Every structure is written in structure tokens, then in C-alpha cells.
Inverse folding.
């Protein structure tokens, strides 16, 4: 068995999860210049509601995994709308530059506390929808669910890209991202677009939650670290680049698994965070961050 | 068609407009001239909902549109080609034009559809350079082409009134001429326009009526020919 391939593949699965969450950060940042710092909690809520529907903790199972996913996506979007309405809209209305930072963090803490009271503080296993016996790829053992994570993440990002490029409403979202004022002049309700981007960002987080839950432990505190690392990924890759989120995610994911194996699991978060510091010092827009293409 | 009465607006605590009143009759071209910083662009912004007026009234075809958010004003039939063009640089020329027709393509409280593909063809006929560059990213166009795109995009709304803010700004003389040639053509097609310009000479040559602004107030108005002959206007804005 090839250890390095093994580590890289596992790192890729983890990295794609970071990428999906980072994608959510990017979507609200693009339309409104704000971020949902409760993104990790949106992920946790997705995983916990998913577990309640498909596991036995709430007297279930009520739905199988594949039917549960769309329900969780709907609940995730609604949660995003709540965050936008309660934490972001008031801050944007009074042109508060930093108010949304505190209010999204506060809302995230509230969500976590509620989750702790509803579901308890202990981590519980999430039943895997795919076989739990590893398959052999390139001399490595990999869980089918790890492959499922990669496929699911790429599928979601592909669909989003298609939506943005091919549909009228997607074009309106892109237009709002590049120039909110001009988008308004086109007749685009930019406030609705911002609310939509929050729904989308929580949807992606909830999706990441149900993707990763079967290969990790599910619990009220699972979101905080994931949310923070995905934020690092968004900064490393650039807050404006979807490609950056994927590359940043893969770098961080692979750095984690390899460091964990070759050095010590205690240090697995260090290389990624050092990379973050280096990027902030030398390329503050991220690896793929770009200024808009515009000629005058 | 467009009536503005006692309009006041500004940015934060700074008041820029001190009671602007003007009318743009249907099918006419009215120009708003004045020095840099007189408040011309601010007037257009307060009309189209990019900023909120603090007093006064704006009516479009008799309907009160004062203080509506920009997207509602667009739905009511007013197109604004803003200062600095503000095209969407990361989207294709074609997508920019499609977004111009957004209110006609969406369901619900929007503008009548009409003949969108016909208007699209018409816009490309009017601006042949855009036809060649349809699939190019708008940000890669030259300054002149971006101005053409901004105008074409505004026309895609099929507006009752078109606001044009400094369409000649920063363009080479030959392109300025082309822009005014197009404005003349739009006028002959009966499009109602409010044109803001620093090139007072060219603006008065195409307009039916003009208003002169100074420090956030209208200081003079008259038919375009009257203003062209006016000594005060001549010395201040026509450069002779």
C-alpha cells in the first residue's frame, strides 16, 4: 500500500469539504462584501438535522440518506435567509462597516447553543450511505464516502458555475457581484440577490455537513474548526475565485493529512496556518484573487 | 414624460442639490449642462434611485417614483446609463445586453416583453462594433466601445425615458462625434432623453431644450437655440 497516495487522497476529500464551505464564504462576499462567520454552525446544523432525519437519535430513521439531502438543503437555505435578515441586513442598512462581523458570530454562537441543548454535547456517529469497506485505488485504501465527498463537492460547484453562466438569475447574481449600483439600474433587486447569496452559502455549508458527517463525528461543536479552516482556505485561494477555493482547499487538506502522518497529528493544523500567514503577507488577495478586468 | 420638482439630495450630511425642477416632455431631448461638480450626475442619481432624495418629487409618465429603489425605477421604465459607464466587466457583451433587458425577461412585476430579440438586433445594428465583440468580456473593450455598450444596455430596457450621463467623457474626438451621431439617431426614433454633458456645445446642438446648473441649482433654462445664443452661456460653457 502506498502511504503517500493514501494521504493525498484523504487530504483531497477533506480539502474538497473546505472548498465547498469556502465557496459559501465567497458567494456572500461577492454580492454584499460581507461574510457569514456562522458558516461552521450552518454546516453543523446541516449535519445534525441530516442525522435526525436519517439516524436513530430522534426516533428515526425517517428518510434514507439520499432523500434526506434535499430536505437538508432546503432547511440550510432557510437558515441562511434567517442569518441575512437578522444579522446582515440591519448592518448593511445603517452602512455599518463591521457590525455584521459581530452579529454573524453572535448568531453562530446562538445556533451552537441551541444545537447543544437539542442534540446534546456529545459527538455521535453518522450512518454512512455507502459501504464502509475501503476500495483500492492507485495502491491506496479509500472509503467510498471519501470519493462521494469529492464527487458531491465537484457536482455542487459545477452546478453553481452553470447557474451563474447560463441562467438569467445567475447572470443577475454575477452582475450584482461586480457592480451593485449598476445592477440595480438594470432592474435587479440587489437586496434579494444578497439574501439569495446567504441562502446559497448556508445551503453549501449544510451540504458540506451531510457530506463529511459519515466520515467524521457529528456533534454540536463540529462546525467551529471546519468553518475557521474553510475561512483560511478562502483567504489562501482568494475571496473572489472559485478555482482558488478548490486549490486552497486541496493544499490545506493534503498539508493536514501528510503533516499528521509524517510529523505528529498534534501539528497537523500548523502548515496550513503558516501558509495563511505567508499568503497574507505576500499575496493579500490570495493565490487566485484578482482585480476586475477593466480598461479605462 | 419625466417631471422633477424641488428635488433635494446629497451624500451623507452634504447636500448637493438645492431644489431642482425640470421637465422632459415625451419624445424630446433635454440637456443638463454645467461645470464639474454642479450636481448634474447627482440629479440623475437621485432620479434613478441610486441615491435617495431628501425632498421633492419625481414623476415618470404621471407616476410618482420619488425615492423608489433603483430596480423599481427601472421597472417603471426609466433607463440610466450612468457616469463611468459601469458595464459588467467580467461578463460578455451579450450578457451585458441581456441584463439590460432583465426587467423584460423576468416574471412578475416587470416590464412588458415586447420584441426582445428584435431590440437586441437593433442595438447591434446601432453599434456594429458590439456585434463583432458579442462574446468578448466587456472589460476587454476599449473606452469608446464600453460607452457604446453602456448606451446599448440602457436601450435594452426599452425605456420611456433614457438618462445619459456624460456619454462623451474621456473619449477621443472621433468617438465623441460617433456618440453624438447615435444620440441624434435615437432622437429621430422618438426616444425621450435627458442628457448630461460637459460638451455644452454638442449637447445644445442635439437637444430641444436645456437647463444650466450651478452649485446644485438651475440658474438658467431655455430652448437649445436660445441657450446657444445666450451671452452668459457662451462665455461660461461654450468657450467663446
Amino acid at each position: 500500500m502506498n502511504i503517500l497516495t493514501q494521504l493525498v487522497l484523504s487530504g483531497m476529500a477533506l480539502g474538497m469539504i473546505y472548498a465547498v464551505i469556502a465557496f459559501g464564504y465567497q458567494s456572500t462576499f461577492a454580492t454584499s462584501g460581507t461574510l457569514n462567520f456562522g458558516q461552521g454552525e450552518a454546516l453543523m446544523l446541516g449535519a445534525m438535522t441530516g442525522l435526525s432525519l436519517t439516524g436513530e437519535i430522534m426516533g428515526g430513521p425517517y428518510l434514507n440518506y439520499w432523500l434526506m439531502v434535499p430536505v437538508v438543503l432546503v432547511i440550510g437555505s432557510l437558515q441562511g435567509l434567517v442569518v441575512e435578515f437578522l444579522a446582515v441586513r440591519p448592518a448593511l442598512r445603517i452602512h455599518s462597516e463591521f457590525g455584521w462581523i459581530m452579529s454573524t458570530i453572535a448568531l453562530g454562537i446562538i445556533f451552537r447553543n441551541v444545537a447543544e441543548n437539542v442534540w446534546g454535547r456529545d459527538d455521535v456517529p453518522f450512518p454512512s450511505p455507502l459501504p464502509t469497506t475501503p476500495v483500492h485505488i492507485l495502491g491506496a485504501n479509500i472509503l467510498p464516502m471519501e470519493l462521494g465527498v469529492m464527487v458531491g463537492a465537484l457536482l455542487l460547484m459545477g452546478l453553481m458555475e452553470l447557474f451563474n453562466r447560463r441562467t438569467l438569475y445567475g447572470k443577475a447574481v454575477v452582475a450584482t457581484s461586480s457592480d451593485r449600483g449598476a445592477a440595480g439600474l438594470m432592474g435587479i433587486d440587489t437586496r434579494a440577490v444578497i439574501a439569495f447569496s446567504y441562502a446559497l452559502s448556508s445551503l453549501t455549508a449544510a451540504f458540506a455537513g451531510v457530506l463529511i458527517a459519515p466520515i467524521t463525528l457529528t456533534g454540536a461543536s463540529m462546525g467551529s474548526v471546519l468553518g475557521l479552516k474553510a475561512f483560511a482556505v478562502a483567504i489562501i485561494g482568494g475571496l473572489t475565485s472559485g478555482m482558488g477555493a478548490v486549490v486552497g482547499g486541496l493544499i490545506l487538506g493534503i498539508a493536514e493529512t501528510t503533516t499528521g502522518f509524517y510529523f505528529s497529528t498534534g501539528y497537523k493544523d500548523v502548515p496550513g496556518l503558516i501558509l495563511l500567514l505567508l499568503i497574507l503577507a505576500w499575496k493579500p488577495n490570495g493565490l487566485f484573487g484578482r482585480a476586475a478586468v477593466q480598461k479605462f | 414624460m419625466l417631471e422633477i420638482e424641488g428635488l433635494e439630495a446629497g451624500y451623507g450630511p452634504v447636500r448637493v442639490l438645492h431644489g431642482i425642477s425640470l421637465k422632459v416632455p415625451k419624445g424630446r431631448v433635454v440637456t443638463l449642462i454645467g461645470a464639474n461638480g454642479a450636481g448634474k450626475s447627482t440629479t440623475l442619481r437621485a432620479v434613478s434611485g441610486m441615491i435617495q432624495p431628501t425632498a421633492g418629487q419625481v414623476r415618470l409618465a404621471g407616476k410618482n417614483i420619488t425615492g423608489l429603489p433603483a430596480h423599481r425605477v427601472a421597472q417603471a421604465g426609466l433607463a440610466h446609463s450612468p457616469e463611468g459607464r459601469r458595464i459588467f466587466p467580467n461578463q460578455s457583451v451579450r450578457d451585458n445586453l441581456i441584463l439590460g433587458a432583465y426587467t423584460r425577461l423576468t416574471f412578475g412585476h416587470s416590464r412588458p416583453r415586447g420584441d426582445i430579440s428584435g431590440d437586441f438586433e437593433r442595438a447591434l445594428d446601432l453599434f456594429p462594433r458590439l456585434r463583432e465583440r458579442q462574446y468578448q468580456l466587456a472589460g476587454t473593450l476599449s473606452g469608446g466601445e464600453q460607452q457604446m455598450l453602456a448606451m446599448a444596455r440602457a436601450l435594452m430596457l426599452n425605456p420611456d425615458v433614457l438618462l445619459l450621463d456624460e456619454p462623451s467623457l474621456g473619449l477621443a474626438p472621433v468617438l465623441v462625434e460617433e456618440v453624438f451621431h447615435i444620440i441624434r439617431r435615437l432622437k429621430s426614433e422618438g426616444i425621450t432623453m435627458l442628457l448630461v454633458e460637459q460638451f455644452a456645445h454638442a449637447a445644445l446642438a442635439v437637444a430641444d431644450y436645456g437647463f444650466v446648473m450651478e452649485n446644485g441649482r438651475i440658474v438658467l433654462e431655455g430652448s437649445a437655440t436660445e441657450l446657444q445664443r445666450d451671452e452668459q452661456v457662451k462665455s461660461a460653457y461654450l468657450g467663446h
About this structure: The two ends of chain B are 34 Å apart (CA to CA).
